[in-house]
TrEMBL record:
Residues 907-917 have a biased composition (Low complexity). Residues 27-52, 890-940 are annotated as: Disordered. Its cofactor is Mg(2+). Residues 38-49 have a biased composition (Gly residues). It comes from the Eukaryota. This is Type I inositol-1,4,5-trisphosphate 5-phosphatase 12. The keyword Metal-binding applies. One of its GO terms (biological process) is phosphatidylinositol dephosphorylation. Residues 895-906 have a biased composition (Pro residues). SMART domains: IPPc (SM00128). Belongs to the inositol polyphosphate 5-phosphatase family.
């Protein structure tokens, strides 16, 4: 954000950089945008016709193509007003402010020329630091940039490395890794040697010697193929990925004391000094760090788990709380609040004093008004499960299973098992999962045809799906419910063959309905009567490791769950985080759980089924016995089973006479089930904001007339009560509390406290590259003061003696001839900090075209003036006290001007130029103390409208 010129700069995935004017106007008063392709200014937001309630309009000021075919991944505005941008393969470009300012000054009719002017004015910093085809920078995506205004440096970051630059000279200072070790130079754009790939042989070709082996040899080779796939998946999961993926940089920020903070995907937070030296490492949470923000002596961290933490500048954890139910992806500070943006788009504000007495008062007052903003909703949810045994169903069967009752429900979730099997398919699916690919033609066929049965497109819309080899889950929401359903995320956990193959396991969807999280998991557990312990272990593994909270844009994969446990810097495992399924308001497990009937013969079971003696059969149910013993599905419940066992049938055999009568005569069993839990801790709890989801089963049946599989499909319908918060009403109540509660108003006013401070001068004159030191003193004895030094603008003395215009650089950057160190920091109570101002000879400037220097010329040597502003803030508000310092530089006279535009091969002129005789004014300055401590000035308080004066609409 360029506050000096009222511009917002954005980088886009099409490779363009755009600027937007922030002097907002409504659509009613904004001029109509130009037609496409005209090259004029465009706009976003607002409405076409305007009106009294029209939304503000951001008007596009300047745009250009920064990169040809790659996205803009990161941007920063340096201490000298330059815009730097990063893209893929380590490409970094710097855009000089002079070219940008010239382009912005052109008229709309000249906008196309302006874009071309900037496009070709960039400096390719990667080439800038490449000597003899050797470059220290890695050829990796530049995902983050940070302008260190305290020391006039720039940090550029990939996932695993850091690069530190001088913002003024654009010199690469060092490249180092996350361990702080400096990396050696490497060949630029190296040709990587071809690496042998991990392959899985999935073809089964019997040799001549194997002809007599028959089916036994085939199945043995199939098993070998699957074991090979499982081993390959494990190798991919553990070869570097386990450690490195959990140590990637996910966020970076600078604190007011000048320290740099970076956060990792394993929850670690690293503190660096301004020279890139690794100082300390902290770990207060195990979830991935998504964002960091600092103000005063506090640092806030947002995590993928939705947790928000606050630390002091020494890394000590002060507090933490659950800010959102999904990843916190951005934070911003305004007034007396820090605002958090969640992955699903929700924004919340927290007092900068949190946690503290203000939170307690606000929480109590809001709780007293809970009834005014609580809203009750009711929806019907239908869940269906079917082991399809690699077959396909007719439209009539799908209608009987789902379509016949779909008219009364708002949400439909369907889980399938054994969509497709076979050694080759399972091995290929496992390999595809390792690179983020999923799905199959058979899986898509089922999704499309179930959609047709539900009248998709007219009555329902599909909200999400996930396939893991043989497992599939998909969900549809009624169109009238669409505005209240969102934030759909998927996950998968394999349980077959070394926890790597998807013939067994679970696939899940997490769906937000009326702002409540509901998780649905389609499962297939271990088979065979005696494998009870394995089935229990499958459930436990799926429940503990199913992880939905992936970063935006990532793909859930079968191997990703193997990385759920994080490691610390020494490689040792840290405490596991709470499972995602445990945090949901409602969880539904459906699928072929494979629990059988025990202590009963085939004939006895058939007799009991024919007599419909289901009460007696339920006493022989393995799942019921294991749940009663607390070994599986802890805290979950199931509807009363009043339908015949759903397994095993002969395909296409109607009625109860279709149970397996072959050689094995498998005992009928209720393999296909639906279990759930809601928010209730006790069964008698009523729906409220403390118990937001209460579900009741209204129907639990098996569709016995469907015969395309050896399993019967089951269907369970829930009536669900949901308590939600009306956010608009709650904000209005919150605003009334802030406006009317005197205790709250007093606390907010106290939070806007700015420490009393003084500076030692109001005017500085620079001559002969000398250093001038002035001082900032924190007169407060109890609180730290944060200072920030900016340049409101600079001017150059005109030949006719008229007063020059003060022109700011981007984001109040300093002119290249002026160096101020440090430009921001923290001052302890009662202490003083020295600020050094230095005139830097910068007689030569280079002109770049397409990243290549074309010529250089002498910089203007006339007298210059800059207006320096010192901003002082506290730690609990952005309210600021300011002081202004006029800095003047008087150039010494020269005997002859240096040559203009000499050939590129010439050496720049020497900076050792003859000095002019000192003026009377400069002589008087030299007689005075160079630290200029005689001109102490008291800050004047400036009025800042804070949130305690805010009125909510």
């Amino acid at each position: 954000m360029d506050r000096a010129n009222g511009l917002l700069w954005t980088g886009h995935k099409d490779g363009r950089i755009r600027s937007w004017r922030m002097d907002l106007e409504t659509a009613a008063t904004a001029p109509a945008p130009p037609p496409p392709g005209s090259g004029g200014e465009g706009s976003v937001g607002g409405s076409a016709h305007g009106g009294p309630n029209s939304a503000p309009v951001f008007r596009e000021a300047l745009t250009w193509q920064a990169y040809g075919r790659t996205p803009v991944l990161s941007m920063a505005i340096t201490s000298y007003g330059e815009i730097w941008s990063g893209s893929e393969a380590g490409v970094i470009k710097a855009w000089p402010y002079d070219a940008i300012a010239k382009s912005l000054s052109l008229s709309p009719e000249e906008r196309h020329m302006a874009a071309l002017l900037v496009e070709r004015a960039y400096i390719d910093l990667r080439n800038h630091c490449t000597v003899g085809n050797v470059c220290s920078l890695p050829a990796s995506d530049v995902k983050y940039m940070l302008a260190d205004h305290s020391r006039a440096k720039v940090w550029t970051l990939t996932s695993m490395t850091f690069a530190l630059w001088d913002a003024r000279t654009r010199e690469l200072l060092k490249v180092f890794g996350m361990d702080g070790q400096v990396e050696s130079a490497r060949l630029d754009a190296p040709v990587m040697p071809e690496q042998p790939m991990e392959e899985v042989e999935v073809k089964v070709k019997p040799s001549k010697k194997d002809k007599s082996g028959g089916s036994l040899n085939f199945f043995q080779k199939s098993r070998n193929a699957l074991m090979g796939a499982a081993d390959a998946v494990r190798r991919v999961a553990t070869k570097g990925t386990f450690v490195e993926d959990n140590r990637r940089t996910g966020a970076v920020a600078q604190a007011d004391d000048g320290a740099i903070w970076s956060g990792c995907t394993n929850g670690c937070i690293i503190q660096w000094d301004g020279n890139g030296n690794r100082m300390q490492e902290f770990q207060h949470h195990t979830s991935s760090v998504q964002c960091i923000k600092a103000l005063g002596d506090r640092v806030w961290v947002g995590y993928a788990s939705g947790t928000v933490q606050v630390m002091d500048v020494d890394g000590n954890l002060l507090a933490g709380w659950t800010g959102h139910s999904c990843p916190v992806i951005r934070m911003a500070i305004g007034g007396s609040y820090i605002y958090t943006l969640a992955h699903h788009g929700g924004i919340r504000g927290w007092p900068l004093t949190s946690p503290g007495p203000l939170d307690d008062v606000l929480r109590t007052e809001l709780a007293n008004k809970e009834l005014s903003y609580t809203r009750m909703e009711k929806i019907n949810i239908m869940v269906g499960s079917w082991n399809v045994a690699q077959g396909k169903a007719t439209a009539e069967s799908l209608k009987a299973w789902l379509g016949s009752v779909a008219s009364d429900v708002g949400l439909v979730v369907v889980g399938l098992q054994e969509v497709e099997m076979g050694a080759g398919f399972l091995a290929i699916s496992a390999a595809k999962e390792t690179v983020g690919l999923e799905g199959s033609a058979n899986g898509q066929w089922w999704i499309d045809n179930i959609g047709k049965a539900l009248d998709e497109g007219t009555s329902f819309h599909r909200v999400g799906s996930r396939q893991l080899a043989a497992l599939l889950i998909a969900a549809w929401a009624r169109k009238s419910l669409k505005p209240y359903v969102g934030d759909v995320e998927a996950a998968a956990v394999p349980c077959g063959l070394g926890r790597a193959i998807g013939n067994k396991g679970g696939v899940g969807l997490r769906i937000r309905v009326y702002d409540r999280k509901m998780c649905f998991v389609s499962n297939h557990f271990a088979a065979h009567l005696e494998a009870v312990a394995r089935r229990n272990a499958d459930f436990d593994h799926i429940y503990r490791t199913m992880a939905f909270n992936k970063p935006h844009g990532s793909t859930s994969s079968a191997t990703s769950v193997q990385l759920h446990k994080t490691v610390n810097v020494n490689g040792n495992p840290v405490d596991e985080v709470r499972p995602d399924l445990a945090d949901a308001d409602m969880v539904v497990f459906l699928g072929d759980f494979n629990y059988r009937l025990y202590g009963i013969t085939y004939d006895e079971a058939r007799d009991m089924v024919s007599q419909r003696s289901f009460d007696w059969l339920r006493e022989k149910d393995q799942l019921r016995a294991e749940m009663k013993a607390g070994k599986v599905f802890q805290g979950m419940r199931e509807g009363l089973i009043k339908f015949p066992p759903t397994y095993k049938f002969q395909k296409h055999a109607p009625g109860l006479g279709g149970y397996d009568s072959g050689e094995k005569k498998r005992i009928p069993a209720w393999c296909d089930r639906v279990l759930y839990r809601d928010s209730r801790a006790v069964s008698v709890a009523e729906c409220s904001l403390e118990c937001p989801v209460v579900a009741a089963i209204t129907s639990y049946v098996a569709v016995m007339e469907v015969t395309e599989s050896d399993h019967k499909p089951v269907r369970c319908t829930f009536s669900v009560d949901i308590a939600r918060v009306d956010e608009l009403t709650r904000r209005q109540e919150y605003g009334e509390i802030i406006e009317s509660n005197e205790e709250v108003r007093s606390m907010l006013k106290e939070s806007c406290f700015v420490p009393d401070s003084t500076v030692s001068t109001e005017e500085i004159i620079l001559e002969n590259q000398e250093n001038i030191v002035f001082q900032i003193t924190n007169n407060c004895e109890t609180s730290k003061a944060a200072f920030e030094i900016l340049c409101e603008g600079q001017s150059t003395k005109k030949d006719d003696g008229t007063k020059p215009e003060i022109i700011p650089r981007a984001s109040f950057g300093f002119p290249l001839w002026l160096e101020v160190l440090p430009a921001n920091g923290l001052i302890k109570p009662g202490e003083t900090v020295d600020i050094t101002i230095h005139h830097e000879d910068f007689y030569t400037q280079e002109e770049f075209v397409d990243g290549i220097p074309q010529n250089w010329w002498c910089e203007d040597t006339r007298d210059k003036e800059a207006v320096i502003v010192v901003n002082i803030t506290g730690s609990t508000s952005t309210e600021t006290k300011t002081h202004t310092i006029n800095v003047r530089h008087r150039c010494p006279a020269t005997s002859a001007p240096p040559p203009i535009n000499p050939p590129v091969t010439l050496t720049p002129p020497s900076n050792n130029m003859p000095s002019e005789a000192p003026s009377k004014r400069s002589s008087k300055k030299k007689e005075a103390s160079r630290q200029q401590q005689q001109d102490y000035a008291q800050f004047a308080s400036t009025e800042v409208h804070d949130l305690y004066r805010m009125r909510c609409p």
